[in-house]
Design brief:
By secondary structure, this protein is an alpha/beta fold. Helix content is about 40%, strand content about 25%. It has ten helices and ten strands. The strands form two sheets. It has a six-stranded mixed β-sheet with strand order 6-7-8-3-9-10, with helices on both faces. Helix 4 packs across helix 5 and helix 6 runs parallel beside helix 7. The longest helix has 18 residues. The radius of gyration is 18 Å and the shape is globular.
């Protein structure tokens, strides 16, 4: 049985005087310890799927199951202990007036978990940051360091699943590879399951076992890593997305 099951998921919301159908009947399954990618242009609905899973966007049709259990609103503490999200912009996702120590300690306090000092220091070490960073503030860190803190925070409750929303796109190119390699190492060490959004097929090819191509809120085509690497797409849209990504890599 898949760890993440998304069955004909739809997300519709109001935007001023119009209704936006952000996600339309999308289905996908992610096995335990697998890494699954969502790709597509801006507005394709890929990030909305992650937000719907964790309760930040309304599920207006279909359902999401984690470990065979349908997720319910509001999300429970048990859900938060199992599923965590890492956002695109690490500066926006960290409270500017909270020290790194407070940021990492907060999930433990909410869930009544003790041994805070040791857990915070271990978390910093796990993401390659010195423990002296505990009492710094986000503005005192680089973008890559802030994203490492965001990853550490997501791992404080030892979840099974990480939802990764463009986790490197706000970072300099030189730092992106470091963060991706960190995520790959943590996945291997902890047996994590990833559902990852990116507009960059090279990132998805590096990180994911399978990928779903999305356009205008709909699923277009699902590909294995081998099919993606061999450019064996069946749809014109997936081929054009691959060609555009390849062109950006050549320009870089």
């Amino acid at each position: 049985m898949a760890l993440i099951e998304i069955d004909t998921l739809s997300v519709t919301f109001d935007a001023g005087d119009r209704r936006v159908r952000a996600v339309q009947e999308v289905s996908l399954n992610v096995d335990a310890k697998a890494s699954f990618g969502l790709v597509g242009e801006s507005g394709s609905g890929k990030s909305t799927i992650l937000r719907a899973i964790c309760g930040l966007a309304p599920i207006t049709g279909g359902q999401v199951r984690i470990g065979g259990e349908v997720v319910k609103s509001p999300r429970s503490k048990a859900f938060s202990a199992q599923v965590q999200m890492v956002f695109q912009d690490p500066y926006a996702s960290l409270h500017p007036r909270h020290t790194i120590d407070r940021t990492l300690s907060e999930p433990l306090a909410i869930h009544g978990i003790g041994d805070t000092d040791a857990r915070v220091m271990a978390a910093l070490s796990d993401v390659g940051l010195p423990t002296s960073f505990r009492f710094r503030y986000p503005h005192q860190l680089s973008g890559g360091q802030r994203q490492r803190v965001a990853i550490a925070r997501a791992l404080m409750l030892k979840p099974q699943i990480l939802l990764l929303d463009e986790p490197t796109s706000a970072l300099d190119a030189s730092v992106q590879a470091e963060v991706l390699n960190l995520l790959a190492r943590l996945r291997d060490e902890r047996g994590l399951t990833f559902l990852m959004v990116s507009h960059d097929l090279a990132v998805i090819d590096h990180m994911c076992d399978r990928v779903l191509v999305m356009q205008h809120g709909r699923a277009v085509e699902e590909l294995s890593r081998e099919a993606l690497a061999g450019a064996r797409m069946q749809t014109d849209y997936a081929r054009s997305l691959f060609a555009a990504s390849a062109d950006r890599m050549l320009e870089g």
